[in-house]
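Form 7-S
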Amino acid sequence: MKKFRALDLTLAGMFVALMAIGANIATIVPFLHVGGVPITLQTFFAILAGAILGSRLGSIAMIVYMLVGIVGVPVFADFIGGPSIIFRPTFGFIISYIFTAFIIGKIVEKKKSMAAFIIAALIGMVVNYLFGTNWMYFAYKFWAAAPEGFTYKMAWLWMVAPLPKDIVLAVLAGIMAHRLERTVLSKGQFKHLKRVS
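Output:
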């Protein structure tokens, strides 16, 4: 186990902050609503965290983000924080960011091509959707008040609205992370990032 340096901790903290901003970007910029659905950038930043920081540091950043919100800091969507978030149907998406960052990090640590980064980003998005949507379904079935006539199909239909946005952002995140890998991350102090993963 290699120790984290100040740079590693700073970058992880930066992604915690970016996740908080991404969760509330539609609140900060009200016009970022499509059909009443707010456009968030959480998945985008979770993908970048794994692709840029690597599997270990990226997933740790997502764990810290989750814990910061659970202890009460309003970093989740709609500036919500506190332990009650655990019982919300959407909490599964917050957990999924940990797995998203870890899996993407593992993929790009092995292959550094543009295609690998984009594929990793799309796989991470799929993990986010699979884990988050299934958690939401079971939450509504077992402990949350489900809408009338709620079904598994309905849970997935709700995800259709943000899907095109998340596909586009996942591809952009893959391209951005690859370019950073080829330029900034492969030089100087940043070369250490993938080694601690």
